[in-house]
Design goal:
By secondary structure, the protein is α/β, with parallel strands linked by helices. The chain has 2 domains: 156 residues, 2-Layer Sandwich (Nucleotidyltransferase, domain 5), CATH 3.30.420; 180 residues, Nucleotidyltransferase, domain 5, CATH 3.30.420. Helix content is 40%, strand content 18%. It contains 12 helices and 11 strands. The strands form 2 sheets. The protein has a 6-stranded mixed sheet, with helices on both faces. Strands 9-8-7-10-11 form a 5-stranded mixed sheet. The two termini are 22 Å apart. The chain binds 5'-O-[(R)-(carboxyoxy)(hydroxy)phosphoryl]adenosine and zinc ion.
């Protein structure tokens, strides 16, 4: 199947054409990051307006690339993110996709953004050799979504079936990076800049920030094991106290302390993520760990997860950098495998801002 995928759940307006769930023929991403930068985070109203302005151009460009590269070939379906994400942003993509599916006379398929992140390692560009075997050949896998809004460990007993087995009780990993960068005046988004600065710290005198363990007595969502959950709010507070005690971000900067602080902070997040991953793999050995989401770009996290996987005889699957952030290719690709909301059901569906992994129909 050849599918056009549309993604507008947060701050990227994106469209792509993917063949048979893996081969990316066309891929266009317009990022709004420069627009949100001055505010230190995504402003939903601005995001929605920018999606409205750009979606026609972005989808048109993806279709033009597809027709130029595959003359005479036709689309079989249009796929779109229906959640989770910002409601006013999701609505723009859904409406555009409904219109496109209707005008092209093809099926509409609605896709869960988090599940799509877990498909990104399997994407490859036309003319390239795939990096990994087909997902349906892997057997049961463990998934880890680490993005700006989510941190979930997901059991995948067979490809296309998802069950959350662990998650954050408060901030997502990406959010923890973004909030720390804001506090330290390092800019937005925080993950890439912290990743870069942390690499410049060569010492081993790490600040002992809390390791993301939920405090005793904090209620964990029903059905989830406490040792499969993380909490990053204590870490954020510990950083705030550290900065205040040091006399503020500028004082830390003047003392040349920023690299040590961010390396220590990053280490706490990475340890928490690797630790829960190890717990999950020890409890239920899996031959593959599939990681998706913007935070999976983090070099230190990749190294820690590789170590964890080596110890558990598990193969690590991570996406090419360009498919780690939000994109339309992951939406088009997963739609080949996951067609639970298609046809009439898809036309009837509304944006679902708090959709969970494995949620929906
Ligand atoms: O998946 P994504 O592009 O969007 C969401 O669906 O949320 O993830 C964005 C998040 C941001 O919080 C950003 O700071 C984080 O991914 N991020 C990183 C890195 N690159 C992006 N976090 C840590 N290290 C990075 N290199
Ligand atoms: Zn995302």
């Amino acid at each position: 199947m050849t599918i056009l995928g549309i993604e507008t759940s947060c701050d990227e307006t994106a469209a792509a054409v993917v063949k048979d769930g893996r081969e990316v023929v066309a891929n266009v991403v317009y990022t709004q990051i420069p627009m949100h930068k001055p505010y230190g985070g995504v402003v939903p109203e601005l995001a929605s307006r920018a999606h409205i302005e750009k979606i026609g151009e972005v989808a048109g460009e993806a279709l033009a690339q597809f027709h130029a590269r595959r003359p005479g070939e036709k689309l079989d379906a249009v796929a779109v993110t229906y959640g989770p994400g910002l409601a006013p942003a999701l609505i723009v993509g859904l409406n555009a996709a409904k219109g496109l599916a209707h005008s092209q006379g093809v099926e509409l398929i609605c896709i869960n953004h988090l599940e799509a992140h877990l498909h990104t390692p399997f994407l490859y560009d036309s003319g390239e050799e795939p990096q990994y075997p087909a997902p349906e050949s892997l057997g049961p896998c463990l998934g880890l979504v680490v993005s700006g809004g989510h941190t979930n460990w997901v059991d995948i007993p067979e490809y296309g079936r998802y069950e959350t087995i662990g998650q954050t009780l408060d901030d997502a990993a990406g959010e923890a990076f973004d909030k720390a960068a804001k506090l330290l005046d390092l800019g937005y988004p925080g993950g890439p800049v912290i990743d870069k600065i942390a690499r410049t710290y060569t010492g081993d005198d790490f600040i002992p920030f809390p390791q993301g363990r939920p405090r005793d007595g904090v209620s964990v969502l029903s059905g989830l094991a406490a040792d499969m959950c993380v909490s990053f709010s204590g870490l954020k507070t510990a950083l705030l106290r550290y900065v205040q005690k040091a006399g503020g971000a500028q004082a830390l900067e003047a003392a040349g302390e920023i690299p040590r602080v961010v390396a220590s902070y990053q280490k706490a997040i990475v340890r928490a993520l690797a630790d829960r991953t190890a717990t999950a793999l020890k409890r239920n050995p899996r031959s593959a760990l599939i990681v998706g989401g913007g935070v999976s770009l983090n070099a230190s996290l990749r190294a820690a997860l590789q170590k964890t996987c080596d110890k558990c005889s598990t193969r690590l699957f991570v996406a090419k950098p360009k498919y780690c952030g939000d994109n339309g290719a992951m939406i088009a690709a997963l739609a080949h495998y996951r067609r639970n909301i298609a046809g009439r059901d898809a036309f009837a569906i509304d944006a679902t801002p708090s959709l969970e992994v494995g949620g929906g129909k």
